[in-house]
Amino acid sequence: MQHQQTIQPQPGQQINLAGYDPDYTGDWEKDLARRQFKDNQERMDALQNVLYAEHKHALLIVLQAMDAGGKDSTIRKVMEGINPQGVHVWSFKQPTPEELDHDFLWRIHQHVPAKGMIGIFNRSHYEDVLVVRVNKLVPDDVWQARYDHINAFERLIADSGVTILKFYLHISKAEQKERFEDRLKEPDKHWKFSRGDLPVRKRWDDYMAAYEDALTRCNTAWAPWYIVPANHKWYRDLVISDAIVRALESLHMEYPAPEPDLDKVKIPD
Ligand code: ATP
Ligand code: MG
After folding, report:
1. Domain architecture of the chain: domains with CATH
2. What average pLDDT does this structure show over 175-192?
3. pLDDT digit string (tens) for 235-264?
4. Using CA positions, which residue lies closest to atom 28 of ligand 1?
5. Measured from the CB, is residue 96 less than 6 Å from ligand 1?
């Protein structure tokens, strides 16, 4: 599929999120997009199988979004059909006292996927330049230094065989309102509603500014950001699955060589 520059900005490009339409769906129609997505799912399943067998590379998928941005449903939808044995999903919550006694990447590093694995971060080290910055949880000079720390860290893991894809799920403030209202309306979504999300919504503009800096300063050749128009879930799933398929295909993976003379093996009765 064609990728607009808006979805995959160039490294170094200054990001202004007001210029990115969360409703964007390219030239796609929903039915066709869903069919293409199914196709991508099958390819992902096959590619994950070789990734696991070859045991040489790993894939790290980073998901960031405002509340109700669709991180959970992306994981459910995009990963369905993939062998769970090869996937490690980790949600980063508020750091524990022990985690806070270490550098901010300490808790992250241990969840970076091992060779053969797909790792998914539901929130990530980017929280340390987002919520931490907006809520002034550390002095300015501390979070300011983190963009460089993040780039160096991502470089280290990329150099160690981890392909990194970072997705910012871009929803509009109006879409978030609708999704929150759904959570209030539907009993089986009540558990997803948290009053604590409302003060965060109030700081929407501050979060957008923090996201813009993260998307601008940490969009590197070795760990690119995708700005995914995410108001329409079907388009979001298509964009993400497409990026994953392309990334895995570019690794040109192969199954390991079989043991010799397999044709001569007889399985005893
Ligand atoms: P859900 O969709 O289930 O609400 P969630 O990711 O919002 O998922 P919560 O338990 O509601 O999960 O929230 C986790 C909270 O932890 C978020 O508010 C997030 O900003 C916060 N958090 C994550 N990492 C950090 C960090 N390094 N410092 C401070 N807060 C953090
Ligand atoms: Mg939450």
Report:
1. 17-251 (3.40.50.300)
2. 96
3. 999 999 999 999 999 999 999 999 999 999
4. 94
5. no
